[in-house]
Amino acid sequence: MSAKASAKEAPAGAARDKETPSLLPGILLCLAITLLAVAVQKVEEHAAGHPYVEALVIAILAGIAVRTAWTPSERFRSGIAFSAKQVLEVAVTLLGASVSLGAIVASGPALLTGIVATVALAIAASYAICRTLGLPARMAILVACGNAICGNSAIAAIAPVIGADSRDVAASIAFTAVLGVLLVLGLPLFIPLMGLSEHQYGVLAGLTVYAVPQVLAATVPVGLLSTQVGTLVKLVRVVMLGPVVVAISLFAAWLPPERAGPAPRPRRLGFTKLVPWFILGFLALAALRSLGLIPDAAARPATQFAGFLTVVSMAALGLGVDVRVLARVGGRVTLAVTGSLLVLLAVSLSLLWALGIA
């Protein structure tokens, strides 16, 4: 290679480096909030013997407070997004090292059937509520599937399949982000109100909380059993995304256009969009743990590290939620999503009692 060619390539490479945003500022911001949350929990433990509010919840609330008071610049956004997604996916994967797949088998086919039925009923009821309130068909599908399966991930996966309008996608995701955090914070209240055991609460969290990472935030403060059961139940819900997307794609082409001009063209999704890598990683580690190939000495630090990464991700999740977004979301969308969530909670609680889960 000539010196002239090298000279030409150097500025181009430098330009590419300049264009690529650094992850470090956003990650450091999330770590700072995490350390604050952990420190507050330590103070609680020292003063009362146990934490009243876990570091996970503190990190979410602190992140929301920071985001509401200050909008992070472009310099921080890539690192925050990385912490909210990739770091969280690693945490979920590592959690598999502490889970035995025997828990699913022990739950029996009744629970698995109940999970599938809950998803189906929630989608149908949510869609009916949305249409009754006058929401367009495509947005009703987004809200229904996001509510019943896995929140933003389901919305993002289904939107291109039905050719959803970008404004509908943005409104659905914005409200789901806020409501998802409120659900994580409020769901533990059902333990004293309904007299739920750790196992029952884990099933309830797995059936109702929107995202796998948020299940961790809702169950880790309650106990390891709740975390394991909730994660397993939630993963079954997530696996339902594949069949639901296939079913919706069968009639997506017949959905009427909802605004002037041609509707966006539906497209198909690949396997990796329907079954995320971290779910496969979680199941692989859980299988190894079940076979005795991951000893306690390795599982314990993996679980602890997963917990720390989860707090980092919850800080990032909070930094992505501006409570003022509620004022910009239409009243019909607010009623539709809230009503859908209440239906999901009612169906989930009914399943607990119908199956006699102790």
UniProtKB/TrEMBL annotation:
Claim: Membrane is one of the keywords in the record: yes
Keywords tagged on the record: Cell membrane, Membrane, Transmembrane, Transmembrane helix
Domain of life: Bacteria
Membrane spanning stretches: 21-40, 52-70, 82-104, 110-129, 141-163, 169-191, 203-223, 235-255, 275-295, 301-321, 333-355
Pfam families: Cons_hypoth698
Any single Gene Ontology cellular-component annotation: plasma membrane
Subcellular localization(s) per the UniProt record: Cell membrane
Membrane topology field: Multi-pass membrane protein
Name listed for the protein in its UniProt record: Putative sulfate exporter family transporter
